[in-house]
Write a structure and sequence with these properties.
The protein contains two helices and five strands.
């Protein structure tokens, strides 16, 4: 269930507050169960647009906004 964040790379991810050990459960309202599904959802959201990630951290969940850089 979800995608484990092993390391945080890139300015957008660091600025969003993502941390190693977080588990990304959803992009917007779309659940993700694999890194491939996560990549697909992020591409579909579009570069340069804020994306809400549902993240499990510790015993709770929270939404984090990520602003992916335009390629």
């Amino acid at each position: 269930e979800g995608v484990l964040v092993a390391r945080v790379e890139g300015m957008a991810a660091r600025e969003s507050g993502l941390r190693p050990g977080d588990v990304i459960l959803a992009v917007g309202r779309a659940s993700v169960a694999s890194s491939a599904a996560l990549s697909t959802q992020l591409r579909a959201a579009g570069a340069g647009k804020p994306v809400m990630l549902l993240v499990r951290r510790g015993g709770g969940t929270q939404y984090i906004t990520v602003n992916p850089a335009e390629q």
